[in-house]
Amino acid sequence: MTARQVLNAQLVVDCGEGRASGRGSFTYTRPPRARYDCHRCGTREGPVTGPDAVIRFVAEIRSAHRDRCTAQEHRT
Length: 76
Ligand SMILES: [Zn+2]
Hints:
Low-confidence stretches: none
Bound molecules: zinc ion
Strand content: 35-45%
Number of domains: 1
Largest sheet: 3 strands, antiparallel
Radius of gyration: 16 Å
Number of helices: 1
Oligomer: single chain
């Protein structure tokens, strides 16, 4: 394995911190966040904050950004 790896993009997820506060409820002291850095076009997507937003962001950002990435040339 080589230690050097070229990343076209990086998805960064911060799971946040919090504690269970009763039956089935959870209180965040630091809400989860996510952002997406595209190194091809230099765009940063997000960050988004909150568990629901983070889940949606992680699920959709790769394909969503690919559609609007300004560095569309794909090297072959
Ligand atoms: Zn891009």
